[in-house]
Amino acid sequence: MSEQREPVTATIVVIFAIIDDALQVLLVHRSAPPEQGLWALPGGRWDGSTTLEEAAAAKLIDETGARDLYLEQLFTASNLDAVQAGVAVAYFALVDEQAVRLRTSQEWPPAWHRVDALPPLAFRNNEVIAQAVARVRAKLDYTNIAFGLLPEQFTLRELQSAYEAILGTALDRRNFRKRMLQTEVIEPTGEVRRMGAHRPAQLYRFTSREPVFL
Amino acid sequence: MSEQREPVTATIVVIFAIIDDALQVLLVHRSAPPEQGLWALPGGRWDGSTTLEEAAAAKLIDETGARDLYLEQLFTASNLDAVQAGVAVAYFALVDEQAVRLRTSQEWPPAWHRVDALPPLAFRNNEVIAQAVARVRAKLDYTNIAFGLLPEQFTLRELQSAYEAILGTALDRRNFRKRMLQTEVIEPTGEVRRMGAHRPAQLYRFTSREPVFL
DNA sequence: TCAAAAGTGTTCTATCTACACCCATGT
DNA sequence: ACATGGGTGTAGATAGAACACTTTTGA
Fold first, then answer.
1. Quick check: pTM over 0.90?
2. Residue A165, CA distances (Å) to A144, A150, B122 in order
3. Positive or negative CA dihedral for A122, A126, A131, A135?
């Protein structure tokens, strides 16, 4: 019998933001083997000194500089890379791009990539991202998770653009407004935003910034 | 700095069956510390020589003797027990009670317990089971996963009883039949079952025994 | 006064819910 | 013939989808 090393545990995080009216994901450049030179999801070894969720949150804050973000576990995969036995616990996160400050020190800094135009990815990160996108799309329908993607105050148009970017389909303005208000996902703040030569837009906030099922 | 041991990885399985018109879960008795004497979900260390899913499936077959079962990953928890750092990857499974042969050799053999009347459980297995029940309930509505709980052929009444046992609510016979047939989840086999002094019941099968979304 | 985005209601359609009677069989 | 569970259709309510014009502003 050969000596068995204990399998390693890692966390990886799919970080989403809406940028240029598109759903984008944060990728880092691998500067060392394995899979050197490819883009990959941020992640790292877990040493057991925190909970998994705390480790994922720490990674997220490390990459984005932002706090109070939406973070949810996706699934756990074994043997994502063939180098050594282990599990990777995948999370996904939703961040407001305006609250993010990426690290820029390295030669290849982390960068946003549209989910519909991903570069070649390390390991099987394509599948992880695909699952994450599917989960977010599904949850848009029956939860308020969009709060993770938007600032404290926003116009209905901005909220609808976020939905459309994620779902990849156009939505009817009137029906969208009706649903958001009837389900009490959002409420008007009373303030308006003046932007350009047209009627000012009412500003809204999420009635709750905790996850809520509709 | 203290020496860090690599965190351990374990799989645990919530095995469901419909027994006596109730949703029941398979528990094993802990004969050694920690949590000695309590009931717990079956599970064990993962050594990395297989995929996680294979390890969970092996545990399931080991406990039930049945194959071709429905198995799905639930979530991964860290630090479920306080003894050593580690992660537990939880799965849930749906089995047809008629296909199960439990091990009976031990003094305290594995046993079925109704999910609405669980004994004191080791670790935080209550939470794991609660999550599994919630997942199964939700998926009954928009998938065909009930195929995991039923034999090849069954009457509509048996299928409905399974749904009612899981959801904990009564369903309308006519609407239930309509939905099952319209969505093509099941189809009549042409055979009937004679049971007692009344009209024989048509037998049905699932149109697919692979997971399908409706 | 014009351009540009914000704001607003109604009709139609599809889906879900509620509900009661006849049918086939064994004893 | 009777008791038992199996089988079936319709009407009302609800939720979702489609759709066009008026308002407010800055230039």
1. yes
2. 16, 13, 45
3. positive
The first and second tokens of residue B173, run together, are 């016979």
CA distance A203 to chain B (A): 35
* Torsions phi, psi for B42 (to 5 deg): -65, 145
Residue A165's contacts (CB-CB under 8 Å, 6 or more residues apart) are: A18, A21, A22, A23
Residue B168 lies in a domain: yes
pLDDT digits (tens, 9 = 90+) for B149-166: 999 999 999 999 999 999
- Nearest by CB to residue A46, choosing from B7, B46, B51, is B7
Instruction: Using CB atoms within 10 Å of the CB of residue A30, give its burial: 0 to 12 exposed, 13 to 18 middle, 19+ buried.
Output: middle
Among all protein residues, pick the one whose CA is nearest to the C1' atom of D5: B198
The model's pLDDT over A22-72, given as tens digits with 9 standing for 90+, comes to 999 999 999 888 889 999 999 999 999 999 999 999 999 999 998 878 999
Partner-chain contact A47 B86, CB within 8 Å: no
Judgement on whether residues A108 and A125 belong to the same structural domain of the protein: yes
- Same domain? B83 vs B186: no
Residues in CB range of A214: below 8 A, 6 or more apart: A142, A143, A144, A183, A185
Specify whether A108 is located in the same domain as A187: no
Within a domain: residue B184? yes
Nearest-Cα distance to chain B for A76, in Å, is 7
Domain with B174 in it: 145-206
Residues B104 and B81 in one domain: yes
**Which of B95, B28, B26, B103 minimizes the C-alpha distance to B62?**
B103
What the block records as the tokens of A54 is 């705390």
Domain end among B117, B139, B161: B139
Three-state secondary-structure class, residue B28:
strand
Contacts of B48 in chain A (CB under 8 A): 4-7, 78-79, 85-86
Task: Give the CATH number of the domain where residue B190 resides.
Answer: 1.10.10.10
Are B122 and B173 part of one and the same domain? no
| Residue pairs spanning A and B at CB distance below 8 A | 76
- Rounded CA-CA distance B11/B91 in Å is 7
Residues B97 and B69 occupy one common structural domain: yes
Bases of chain D with protein Cβ within 7 A: 3-10, 16-20, 23-27
- Selected for mutation to probe chain A from B11, B75, B76 (highest A CB count within 10 Å) is B76
